[in-house]
Structure formats: structure tokens, C-alpha cells
Amino acid sequence: MQLIVIHRENFAPGRSGILHSVLSSESLATLLLDGLTRVNSFNHFSQAPLIAIPKEWQIETSLPETSINFYKQDIAVELDRVNNTKRNQWFIISNGRFITDIDHEWLFGILTDLNADVISVNVDSGLTAFREKIRITSQKHIAGFSRLYSDTAQELPVPDSWPQHLFVNIDILKELLVDGMLPLNFQEILSGGIKKSLTLRSISIAGKALDLEAEDDFLALIDFYLNSIWPGNHQKYMRLLGSNNILVDKNARFFGKVFLGHNVRIRQDVIIVGPAIIGDNVEISNEVTVKSSVIGPHITVPEKYYIRNRVVTDDTQLNGEHFREQKGSVLRRYCITSQAFRQKNRFTVFRTWPRFSYAGCFKRFFDIIAALVLVVLFAPVLPILMLAVKLSSPGPVFFKDKRQGLHGKEFSCLKFRTMMTGTDRIQSKLRAISQVDGPQFKIEDDPRITTVGKFMRDTCLDEIPQFFNVLLGQMSLIGPRPSPVSENSLCPPWRDARLSVRPGITGLWQICRTRQQGQDFQEWIHYDVKYVRELTFKLDLWIFWQTTKKLIVDFVRHF
Residues 222, 275: contact at Cβ < 8 Å? Predict the structure, then answer.
């Protein structure tokens, strides 16, 4: 079960803040609370989160009463209700001031590994993949750079104030309650847990977080919410169902997704560009332009004002100042998606092609036809090769290695086994004598390779099983060499390029490489990127022909 708490302590005395102001409008309160439950809920629960709001705020909303808990000091927790909705081991208390976007599956795996009773979780965008950090010495000198190649999490000291999420093991939840009430003083939670010898841990995890008391972040939530309830790019103008006394001048114009509350007055020549929300009892005077903004309840906007990317919660924000475009804050568009962090090793698509183009469609057809033909041609020699591998050394006939394919999806790359069993695991110990640069590994007369394996490698017969990878759609006949995650992480632009297409059995690098000392990795990057940039049927045909000639020459040279 999840409880979203809007803490009164978030607001300074005498200052209501964005959340308080918006929630004081019935129509906006319904919209905001629905948005909170949609975006901030954890997908491990079938039931929508319960929202706790200070009782003195006098919130009115059309949401079901069972979904809202108005509290005075502490919050009543019904243990029977918690146990009846139990789907995993956690009772989650979320801070309603924040919207977070985390990979839930990954997070719950980390929580299980921590094996703690109470775990606080905060989101840190600096821990997301492919971010660079500058390391500074105590004298403010740059010591170097570090780069994260996957989303990470780190353990930190338990904070003094409410985190963005607090995970409490359901089995010990009763230990934290005081007379059936959940204390809203976080220090009381901590001291109670320590007194009862509970295990308290804290982590910071990769993700995105929006602070709803920050103007730009609040607008980002509204942008996401309006697009989620009204999908599509078509023009949409909505009057809240059940609303009354809406007066809109015939010369007013609306563009995009606009939400109107109760008792709204919109005068002559007003332009409203969505996503925008107009609260209850708002009057917008003549010739006003509102763009990507929220106008809170009981606001009167004077004539000829230009409001852009703002959250207006009080008339005093407008007094004496005409909002002009250059004075509006720049809205930072956040991408809020429930699955934004499903892939820990994300990449940017380097290049895309039209669906009905050679690279987008017809290349795959040619791969299937060519692979079928080649499998049929090599079918008579496959049993001989399999028998030779089996008799040359103990172990399986095929070697399977995890490689990254199109869009980073991992697959088992097939080859005939050419080494003694298990010797691939000692490669790191031999890397010091590798004769090539970059992440690849190669030494002459590698002692791990069997006699049959050497012949198969020299003639490329060991790669015949990869035709089955082609038929399965995991590889192409021609493309960048298939590589594991560890190799792809060394150069992000190169990784993004090569993962934009299926890896190939042969490619431009294999044909054009010069094997000059100290330049092989540079050539590898150059030719992979060049191939993706210049991918055409003519280029693939040329690579196929050059590869065929090279294979014939290498095979004949052995006899």
C-alpha cells in the first residue's frame, strides 16, 4: 500500500505555496490529486495511493472520499486495510511535494538486497547513465572526470527530514505507529525505529524528480498530465464536467489542451495556448495572452497582460508588473514516463531510416534470403565441423557469448567453439600481452585455441552458426561487429551508432582495417560510424563481395 503525504511543514508560515493555492480550488484540486496518484504511484499495487492532506486546508474535490485522509497532527493507519491490500512486503510513504520517476523493478530489487526494516529513498539525476562528473581537489583543482555508463544507486546516511519515499516493511509497520497513528515528525520515526532495534538504511537512486513547489517543475507535471488524459496532438478545449457559469467571449481563442474551472470569465480577444489550466473564479480581461501557464483560483488578470510559463497563485504577483515574453521563465521540459528507466544501459539512436527504405525494411528481407541460401550451402559440412570440434577437445560444440544487438538488446551470439573449455574466463589475466589496442583482445599463437579451432578461425568457418542469429533477427549479414556491453561502454557516440543497426557477421571495419599498431581501435570506431552514416544497398553489396573474395583467398592459402 502507498500513502502520499502532503506535509504542512513544506510551507513557511504565512506563505501558502503553489500546492496549497492550487488545492484550494475544487476543480484544480481534483486535477492535481489525480495527477499525483497517476504519476507518483508504484506499479506493484493494484489500488490507487491514499493521499493525506492537512485538515485545515479545507480541500474540496470530486475524488472518492476513501482516497483522501485529512489529518490534524499524525495520520491514522488502518492495519487491516494495509494487510488486505498486501501484494509485496512494503508500505510506502511518499512525500507529496515531489514527483519521482524511477525504474520500479530495479528499485525493488535493491530494496530486497538491502534486507532492512525501514529504507529511505531519494532520487538523484546525477546518478543516471552517461553523466560526467568533475572531481575537484580540496584546493579547487580539477583532478579528473568520471563517467557513469549505467544507472547507479548509492547508500547514504539516513536523512534528518522526510525523504521522497520511505519504505517500511509491512511486518514491522505496527512498531512505528503510536496508538495506531503514523507520526509526521520524521525524527520521531527514526528514534522509534532505533529504540525498537529496527534496521534503518538510506539510498540515493538514479532517476528524475520534480519539486512541485518549483514553478517550472509544477508546469512540467501539468504538461504531462494534460497530455496523458487527452492523448494526441489535435486541438482540444475542455470545460470541466459539471462546471457552471463559464462565460467565454466569442472572440477568445484556444489552442492545444486547456482546462477550465468553475465560474471562469474570459473576455474579448483573449488567447490561451495549452497546456494551460484556469482555476475557479478567475477573470481574464481583454487582450490577455496566457501560454503554458496555470492561473490559480480567485485571480483577476488585468488587460493586455502576457503570461508565459508561469504559475500565478496570488493577485499580488500581477500588481504593478506587465508580464512580457522576455520576463517569463523558461520552462524546462522534463520527460516524465512510467518506464523512463527500464533500461539501465540506455543509448541515443544515432540514425533512423524511413520504414519502407532499404535499411528500414528491405535489408532484413535480403538477410533472410541470403542466410537461408548460405545455411543450405554449408549444410553438408556442418556435421563434419561439429564432429571435428567435439573430437579436438572436451566440451560443447558451440560457444555462446552475450552480445548487444539492435537498440542494445542482448542475445547469445553463436560460434563453433575454438578454445579449450573455460579458458575464455582468463582473458583478463592475459590482457597485458594483448597485441591490439582498445577493448578487443588478440595475441599471436594464443595457447587457449585448439588446432581445429585455429584452422576454423583463420578460414572464418567458426562463424557459420551466426547465420542462425541472422534468421532469428538478432544479427545481419553486414553491420558492425557484435560486441558485449563492456566494449560498447568505452565510447558513447560509437556505441550509439553501432546499436542503431543490427550487428553483422562481416562489416566495413573487417574489410578496411589496416592493423597498424596503436590505430586498430580508432579504425574500428571510424569504420563503424562511417557504415551507419553511409548505409546503402550498394555499400552492403560491395562489403559482401569484398568479404567473399577475402574468404576464398584465405581458404585457398591453407592448402
Answer: yes
Q: With contact defined as beta carbons under 8 Å apart, do 428 and 441 qualify?
A: no
Which residues, 6+ apart, have CB-to-CB distance to 233 below 8 Å?
A: none
pTM score of the predicted model: 0.63
Is the backbone peptide bond immediately before 275 cis, with ω within 30 degrees of 0? yes
What gap in Å lies between CA 262 and CA 242, rounded to an integer?
9
For the cut 70, the answer to whether the pLDDT of residue 440 exceeds it is: no
Contact between 77 and 182 (Cβ < 8 Å): yes
CA 280 to chain centre: 36
CATH 2.160.10 spans which residues of the chain?
Answer: 215-327
Q: What is the dihedral of CA 53, 55, 56, 59, to 10 degrees?
A: 60
Q: Are 405 and 367 in contact (CB under 8 A)?
A: no
What is the C-alpha separation between 387 and 326, in angstroms, rounded?
76
- pLDDT tens-digit series, residues 70-87: 888 888 877 766 666 555
Angle between helical axes of 363-378 and 537-557 (0-180°, round to 10): 20
Mean pLDDT in residue range 154-160: 90
Buried (b) or exposed (e) across 409-429, using 16+ Cβ within 10 A? eebebbbbbbbbeeeeeeeee
Q: Provide the CATH topology of domain 215-327.
A: UDP N-Acetylglucosamine Acyltransferase; domain 1 (2.160.10)
Query: What whole-number distance in Å separates Cα of residue 463 and Cα of residue 53?
Result: 64
CA R_g for the chain: 31
Predicted pLDDT at 177: 84
In angstroms, the CA 323 to CA 289 distance is: 10
For residue 33, what is its C-alpha cell? Answer: 490529486
Per residue in 219-278, pLDDT (tens digit) is 888 888 777 776 655 444 454 434 567 888 889 998 888 888 888 999 999 999 888 888
Q: Which amino acid is at 301?
A: V
Q: Label residue 45 exposed, middle or buried (CB < 10 Å: 0-12, 13-18, 19+).
A: middle
Q: Where is average pLDDT lowest: 78-82, 274-278, 310-314, 352-356?
A: 78-82
CATH class, 2-210 region: alpha beta
* CATH 3.90.550 residue window(s) in the chain: 2-210
